Amino acid sequence: MYSVAQHPGSRYKERAMDELQPYLDDPPPRKARGPLLVFAIINIVFGGLAFLESVCGLISLGMMGAASKLAPAVGLKPAMSLMTHPAILGMQAASLVVGSLLIVSGIMLIRLSPSAIRVTKIAAGAKILEFLVDTTLNWTVIQPAVRKLTATAPGPHQQFELVGQVLGLVFGALFGLVYPTVLLFMLGRPEVATQFAPAPPSE
Length: 203
Hints:
- By secondary structure, the chain is mainly α.
- It is built from eight helices and no strands.
- The chain has one domain.
- α5 packs antiparallel against α6.
């Protein structure tokens, strides 16, 4: 009878496995699931659309500001002054900020970041505030200016002006008021709080 000495390479392999075992036992990173994941994706999509729209709008306003020097020569000064109105510039800037918040909150929800709920509530509240301010500016500043500009140019567009305003208000309310309200309600659901609960310690 004889014993074979353990090969040194085997001892090194076992030692390496012992050192790596705690990392191998760690649970995989947690991700959002169910309705929370759906709302997170919607936040990213809606936020991305708002962000792109506001960026394009701000670029267009900048180009219009540069072209306004030519407006008197071609008779477009009233239209240019309307399109470069400070209220429109402020609405585009607000949309840029809110869109960024929605994108960030959606990513944080997917990753179940500890501050995701707080950031998402801020984004939802900002979206509601943006809708209320935009609607107020639209009906008290922009629309009266549009009616004044088109008063001397009657045409078929005046027949559909009110319908367009109502449709814009309805669709704007769906995203600017209804969705953020539903999002805030969803964040208070017990199943959402469960997903953010600390993971049990591994044995």
